[in-house]
Write a structure and sequence with these properties.
This protein has 369 residues and is an alpha+beta fold. Helix content is 49%, strand content 19%. It has 12 helices and 11 strands. Strands 4, 5, 6, 7 and 8 form a 5-stranded antiparallel beta sheet that branches. The chain has a 3-stranded antiparallel beta sheet with strand order 1-2-9. Mean pLDDT is 89; it is low at 1-23 and 357-369. It catalyses: [protein]-peptidylproline (omega=180) = [protein]-peptidylproline (omega=0).
């Protein structure tokens, strides 16, 4: 019934606009034109499934695994397949080298995580022993070419062997350790069910918003870009990558070739495209926000900033503003409001692919959110 009603309403709206010549479904300014954004058609998004007891139990089992412990074996020698906890210091020509040392490192013997011979050298040693192992980095050592082919000495201490993993019992005491809300197992299961349900709903909303947003972006046309906006974003992106190259101690050209397999010319082209797309999204969001009066007040902005700070794990809004400008945060809020508006007003249409796999004969059915 809802599907038929949605089609009827959409059709009536379209006919009304054609007859009146109304352009209320277009948003335009000096920079961008956005046509047909209200009631835009998108592939239907599957409604979130009901959360089952199995879903809840599987989630809780994963939490128990996070709090799993293992006994520490200290009365025998290491054998292949053991997971051992070790300290080690690597030296070349008597000098420790960067990232060649660690404490409390868990290593499975036979995993091949270290250079040849390192793991085998630990076999037979008992917890509490410290010994030196002399080895050599492979000639083609790609993790750090500066170490390739060099002789190395590792001083290794075996702390203990990890024994059988033990899961904590699911009882009220465990619940109070892992939850700030629940006191009993029964309450905890209700909490998790609510949490999973909200997460599933959020995923659905996000997917629908993205579908509508991308469909609108595909139709939008940029007439021109504001002076300097694209260049500013290009410079920001390039600065981030340059900082990354500096942190690796590499020339920028070498950094791009080694980690991204691209030339500087290709990089610059991709950066320009990304910058243009970023500016386009901001322009489209602002045009629709202006047309639909979605631009938030200062009070609304501050409320949304608090949500963003919480969402991204910042202590407060001031901490968030240390890494993002006021304009950037405002644009995020406006874009989110526009996405919600578009999702609320889009028409979901069953795609051909979904229709082919469905037993329903109505391949063109549609529904609103």
């Amino acid at each position: 019934m809802k599907k038929k009603l949605a089609v009827l309403v959409a059709g009536t709206l379209a006919a009304s606009m054609l007859l009146s010549g109304c352009s209320s479904n277009d948003a335009s300014n000096d920079y961008v034109t956005v046509g047909g954004y209200k009631g835009i058609e998108v592939d239907d998004v599957e409604e979130p499934a009901e959360v089952t007891d199995d879903d809840v139990n599987n989630y809780i089992e994963a939490v128990r695994n996070q709090y799993a412990t293992s006994e520490q074996i200290t009365d025998r020698g290491v054998i292949a397949g053991d997971t051992v906890n070790i300290d080690f210091v690597g030296k070349i020509d008597g000098e420790a080298f960067d990232k060649g040392s660690a404490e409390g490192y868990d290593l499975q013997i036979g995993s091949g995580s270290f250079i040849d011979g390192f793991e085998d050298s630990i076999i037979g040693h008992t917890p509490g022993e410290t010994f030196d192992w002399n080895g050599k980095f492979p000639d083609d050592y790609s993790n750090n070419p500066d170490l390739a082919g060099k002789d190395v000495t590792f001083t290794i201490t075996v702390n203990y062997i990890n024994g059988e993993t033990q899961l904590p019992e699911l009882n009220d005491e465990f619940v109070q350790e892992v939850s700030e809300k629940s006191k009993t197992v029964k309450e905890y299961k209700k909490e998790i069910k609510k949490q999973l349900t909200e997460s599933s709903t959020t995923d659905y909303d996000t997917q629908l918003q993205d579908e509508a947003w991308n469909a609108v972006l595909d139709k939008a046309e940029v007439k021109k870009y504001p002076d300097g906006d694209v260049e500013d974003i290009e410079n920001q992106i390039k600065e981030q990558y340059q900082n990354a190259a500096d942190s690796y101690g590499l020339a920028f050209e070498d950094f791009l070739a080694q980690y991204y397999s691209m030339s500087e010319d290709d990089f610059n082209k991709q950066v320009k495209d990304a910058a243009k797309e970023t500016v386009k999204q901001r322009l489209v969001a602002q045009a629709i926000a202006d047309k639909e009066k979605l631009t938030p007040s200062k009070k609304e902005l501050n409320k949304e900033y608090k949500k963003l700070a919480e969402q991204y794990g910042y202590e407060d809004v001031d901490a968030l503003k240390e890494i993002a400008s006021e304009d950037t945060l405002k644009n995020i809020v406006i874009t989110n409001k526009v996405k919600e508006f578009l999702a609320d007003n889009c028409i979901q249409v069953k795609s051909d692919k979904k229709s082919d796999s469905s037993s329903s004969s109505d391949s063109s059915s549609s529904s609103s959110k």
